[in-house]
Design goal:
The protein has ten helices and 14 strands. The chain has 318 residues and is of the alpha/beta class. Bound molecules: uridine-5'-diphosphate (UDP).
Length: 318
């Protein structure tokens, strides 16, 4: 099967490309390299450097390759930036996604796995979060993803939207780099390495067991395997949205304590005010993915931090 992977040189995309190649798929990566690294790709993946904004780029990649299905990762994913520049998010995550769908239709490609997010839910009314929970995003990142899910629902294309919880961890000798980095686990590990003086805890007065926010961290390898199962489910005619999480929550303080234990390093912590837009707790109810996609998370938070530390402590810079 030939799969086009947009954003395949990014963090989750590149891990998925490695897993696809390991499982015998032929992969064409479409990436602008704005936030992706070609060094992250296996040699056997074909890279087409292009932009979803350019119809010409899209038509070139679809006409020069026989594509059976698309996995669509390309998009912006910083909550804070989406609040400062919403149009940037609607432009890339929505309008450019529509360009992709139009080209798929033109070339008769009718299967897509979409990289969505638990940010589509907004503030949880009930935990753990089921797919039937209302979607009232509280930031433009989440809204842009929700709107694209709606475009998919209204299109004639068969789709599976995967709502990731907190992706983390590393595998295949590659790892997580964002510029700027805003995610908790890489920041804490950078502090352990001395690349930062300290880490800030955003809010210690949440109504949680230790006052800090709780998230459901999911290993990037578990996400990669979910995309492949989603492709197989599309082949069987399944469609819809699925949560990808472990069903277990970990607080910010627990993450920091585990990082101290796993790295054996001191990490200086500063308690700060809450960060705007952070729900106190986001944890998935992942049963639908288990029953319908046959997917289940294999790795826990300890495995995630160990794998991330293994990569962060070895890699210098790209
Ligand atoms: N967080 C923190 N300090 C940091 C970065 C993140 O306390 O330097 C907190 C953040 O407020 C949230 C949790 O860690 O409660 C996870 O944040 P992250 O940005 O990794 O993922 P998000 O849940 O926002 O997608």
């Amino acid at each position: 099967m030939n799969v086009l992977v947009t954003g395949g040189a990014g963090y989750i995309g590149s891990h998925t490309v490695h897993e696809l190649i390991n499982q015998g798929f032929n992969v064409v990566v479409f990436d602008s390299l704005e936030n992706g690294y070609k060094e992250f790709l296996p040699k056997t993946a074909k890279l087409f450097q292009g932009n979803l904004e350019n119809k010409k780029d899209l038509e070139e990649v679809f006409s020069s390759n026989k594509i059976d299905a698309v996995i669509h990762f390309a998009g912006y994913a910083l909550v804070g930036e989406s609040m400062e520049n919403p149009v940037k998010y609607f432009h890339n995550n929505l309008a450019n996604g529509i360009n992709l769908l139009k080209t798929m239709k033109k070339f008769n490609v009718n299967k897509i796995v979409f990289s969505s997010t638990c940010a589509t839910y907004g503030i949880p009314e009930k935990l753990p979060l089921e797919e039937s929970h209302p979607t009232n995003p509280v930031n433009y990142y989440g809204l842009s993803k929700k709107l694209f899910e709606q475009v998919l629902e209204s299109s004639k294309i068969n789709f599976i939207a995967l709502r990731y919880f907190n992706a983390a961890g590393a595998a295949f000798g590659i790892g997580e780099i964002h510029n700027p980095e805003t995610h908790l686990i890489p920041i804490v590990l950078e502090a352990a390495l001395g690349k930062r003086d300290s880490i800030k805890i955003f809010g210690t007065d949440y109504p949680t067991k230790d006052g800090t926010c709780i998230r459901d961290y999911i290993h990037v390898l578990d996400l990669a395997s979910a995309h492949i199962l989603a492709l197989k489910s599309l082949e069987e005619g399944k469609s819809g949205v699925y949560n990808l999480g472990t069903g277990k929550g970990t607080s910010v303080r627990e993450v920091i304590d585990l990082c101290k234990e796993i790295t054996g390093r001191e990490i200086k912590v500063i308690e700060e005010e809450r960060r705007p837009g952070d729900p106190a707790e986001l944890v998935a109810f992942p049963l639908k993915a288990k029953t319908e996609l046959n997917w289940e998370a294999k790795y826990n938070i300890r495995d995630i931090i160990k794998s991330a530390w293994d990569w962060h402590s070895k890699h210098k810079s790209i």
